[in-house]
Design goal:
Layout (H helix, E strand, L loop, with lengths): L10 H12 L3 H13 L7 H5 L3 H13 L3 E6 L2 E6 L1 H15 L11
Antiparallel strand pairs: 1-2
Length: about 110
Amino acid sequence: MGLAKSEIFTDKQNAISAFTKVFGHPARVAILEHLFAINTCICGDLVDVIGLAQPTISQHLKELKNVGLIKGNVEGTSVCYCIHKKNWTAMKSVINEFLNQDITTKTDCC
């Protein structure tokens, strides 16, 4: 497989790509929805809520944490996760700016 050559794109383009990629799996969307619904940190009961195996949940949490949308704290033998509010707000700004672009031509070009 070829390289993505991410270095030839802007930071904003790479950020948009990373954010949209993380939303590309319904389990990660479900995890985020659950974290918003409970409005607090969650420590380990996502397996029952999401319905996937613990290693699978852990991998999805890792992806969400890698893009900075969630943060985790070690408490004893478990890791507790919650929405990273500052990064969530920043992500919304970047994505909204991208999605709010409009076509300004008056003619149909295609």
